[in-house]
Design a protein that fits this description.
Blueprint: H1 3-32, H2 44-66, H3 74-105, H4 113-141
Helix pairs in contact: 1-2, 1-4, 3-4
Length: 146
């Protein structure tokens, strides 16, 4: 397994863990009717959530530092360029589905601005997950062991 594959596995693990944790937090907040966003000012829970949300981003930066892309060969760079397209498509589908769900669930058609930031945050991790899966598939089915 080369450095690009190790990086893809690490980013996939971080992304999936972040998405699962976000889903658990969303379900917990929804079931217990916790006001994370606040009406006019951020709540303490919202501030703690914001600090916790930076941890996966820092882990992704550490993974990029640990496995720099300049050490990849031409095949790795080609696979990386292809996976970016899949990642963007995954993020777009996620945002379209989330927007559709918000329209269906919210009769007034309004959304708090902080929710848009959270959706963009989650879309990044959906993009990273899909990109990592696409890279690992290309290494597995392509010429990954050459």
């Amino acid at each position: 397994m080369n450095k690009a594959q190790k990086r893809a596995w690490l980013i996939l693990a971080i992304s999936i863990a972040t998405l699962l944790a976000a889903a658990a937090i969303i379900i917990f907040v929804h079931i217990n009717h916790i006001d994370v966003l606040g009406h006019y000012k951020p709540t303490p829970i919202g501030r703690i959530l914001g600090v916790v949300m930076t941890v996966p981003l820092i882990l992704i930066v550490i993974a990029a530092w640990r496995f720099p892309q300049k050490d990849f060969d031409e095949r790795d760079k080609l696979i990386d360029h292809k996976t970016v397209i899949w990642g963007y498509m995954g993020a777009f589908i996620f945002l379209a589905g989330a927007g559709w769900f918000i329209i269906i669930a919210n009769q007034l058609g309004t959304i708090k601005s902080m929710l848009i930031i959270y959706l963009i945050y989650l879309a990044y991790f959906v993009s990273a997950s899909v990109s990592s899966i696409a890279a690992l598939i290309q290494y597995r089915w392509g010429c990954g062991n050459e």
